[in-house]
Specification:
Elements lengths: L38 H11 L12 E10 L18 E10 L14 E9 L2 E8 L12 H8 L10 H10 L4 H8 L13 E2 L4 E4 L5 E10 L8 H10 L3 H11 L5 E10 L25 E10 L4 H6 L12 E2 L4 H17 L77 H9 L2 H15 L5 H14 L1 H15 L1
């Protein structure tokens, strides 16, 4: 499919002047040197040198699409968010899928978590739900995030991703055992972005009109069905078609086969959090469905492709701190770190006025802030006052918080999150392993064994294996035997 240029007509310079010749540069005589007065040539070369912006440090490789979110159930007793206020209400969305560790030119069909970043263009401003295709993550505290990502990226000496670094960190961070079991299981390589689930992953706060607080977890279940690739299938596909997932999404929407997801939420009354058997704010844990069943509340549909990948996918920004009234954060220590890190990353990567780009700006209401100037500022505020409070009728504060405050006590110091009755780093990983069929277990063991076999030091490999043994004795025993067989 070819997207037609809507600006047909004579070619111009960036300043709008007509271009006489775009095939030949100006020279001093027929065979002489190029002239510095050829500003069309210099403008083209200078623009080309500056066309790229820094890629995302994580989630660099991605694809996106627009669509709509439709409310299918009444959740007003839990949240006062207006975009969820009535059954049938529709809200425009933009969803960006991504891998985590690969750079911008990496292949899609790789073993890696997938980002699931969803922007709701609500009448109360943008709400960003920045999650993954897994309900848990490798670590529970943002202070470990830079170290974790360094292990997934290229080694400073070899320039390659090193199994030693990956499994050394995971072995020394036993809380990762649950997510690693997800990653090396069948769902570690989705067949496409359309055939995987999405999760908010973190715990979030919902607040109703009465000020009652509920803790929630989001689930988006694919209506296309779960489809995955084996390690062998992915290896072939990544080589043949590095753009496989991006291409699949784009072509499905072009065919009118709009992918959909059914949205569910788990809801925990705030009073139950303190004594719940797991820490409900620990990103390495799930809430078992028998404790808090999934409640359907919406339908997500993607139905429009971006017209320009750079403008709309690469320059799209998502931040977990983009909340709307009735929705807010939780004490999840990973989420708390992300509230700062994502916005700061985009201010560096795209620029201080990234929120003014069409893909990022609110749709139903314009931002009415006192932020001014900076790179690419478009002067949209005219000559309006740039301070508050003022006496000129400019925007004022509402006096009503978006979410409910939380009581706190104690001293300020570095400390782990509170431990609950059944909290440890292995119980849920073991539960996940025991839920798998025998074939699924066999593939999990094979995938992990092939990865651990690449570790050069026996102590690092053994420490990693021991974490899986603590999750389930059979898990560790079979993995150790498989690694030993590969190593001879």
């Amino acid at each position: 499919m070819t997207v037609q240029d809507e600006t047909a007509g004579p070619m111009t310079t960036e300043a709008g002047a007509p271009v006489a010749d775009n095939q030949n540069s100006q020279t001093a005589g027929a065979g002489g040197p190029v002239l510095v007065q050829d500003q069309h040539l210099l403008e083209k070369l200078a623009h080309f040198n500056r066309e790229r912006i820094p890629e995302r440090i994580v989630h660099a490789r991605g694809a996106g699409a627009y669509g709509k979110f439709t409310v299918t159930a009444d959740v007003t007793k839990y949240t006062r968010a207006k975009f969820l206020s009535e059954i049938g209400k529709e809200t425009e969305v933009f969803l960006r899928f991504s891998t985590v560790a690969g750079n911008l030119g990496a292949a899609d069909a790789v073993r890696d978590p997938r980002g699931f970043a969803l922007k709701f263009y609500t009448e109360e401003g943008n709400y960003d739900l920045v999650g993954n295709n897994t309900p848990v993550f490798f670590i529970k505290d943002a202070i470990k995030f830079p170290d974790f990502i360094h292990t997934q990226k290229r080694d400073p000496y070899t320039g390659s991703q090193e199994p030693d670094n990956v499994f050394d960190f995971w072995g020394l961070s036993p809380e990762s055992t649950h997510q690693v079991t997800w990653l090396f299981g069948d769902r570690g390589i989705p067949a496409s972005y359309r055939h995987m689930d999405g999760f908010g992953s973190h715990t979030f706060q919902w607040t109703n009109e009465a000020g009652e607080v509920f803790w929630v977890k989001y689930h988006f279940k694919t209506d296309q069905g779960i489809k995955n690739l084996t390690a062998q299938e992915a290896e072939v596909l990544a080589g043949k078609d590095p753009d496989s997932h991006q291409r699949d999404l784009r072509e499905a929407i072009e065919r009118g086969e709009y992918p959909t997801w059914t949205a569910y939420v788990q809801i925990m009354p705030a009073a139950e959090a303190a004594n719940y058997r797991f820490n409900p704010f620990d990103l390495t844990k799930v809430w078992p469905h028998e404790d808090y069943p999934m409640i359907e509340f919406g339908k997500l549909e993607l139905n429009r492709n971006p017209r320009n990948i750079f403008a709309e996918v690469e320059q799209s920004i998502f931040s977990p701190h983009h909340f709307v009234p009735g929705i807010g954060p939780s004490p999840d220590k990973m989420l708390q770190g992300r509230l700062f890190a994502y916005g700061d990353a985009h201010r560096y990567r795209v620029g201080i006025n990234a929120d003014l780009l069409p893909v990022n700006e609110p749709k139903a209401t314009k931002a009415r802030s006192y932020g001014r100037d900076g790179v690419m500022y478009d002067g949209r505020h005219g000559g309006a006052k740039n301070y508050e409070p003022n006496s000129f009728g400019a925007p004022t504060e509402t006096g009503r918080a978006l979410w409910q405050p939380l009581p706190v006590s104690g001293t300020t110091e570095e400390r782990p999150a509170p431990s609950h009755a059944e909290d440890d780093d292995f119980v849920q990983a073991g539960n996940l392993y025991r839920l798998m069929s025998e074939d699924e277990k066999a593939r999990l063991i094979d995938n992990l064994a092939n990865a651990i076999a690449g570790v050069s030091r026996d102590d690092i490999a053994q420490r990693a294996i021991e974490n899986f043994r603590k999750a389930d004795p059979d898990y560790g025993k079979r993995l150790e035997a498989a690694v030993q067989a590969l190593r001879g």
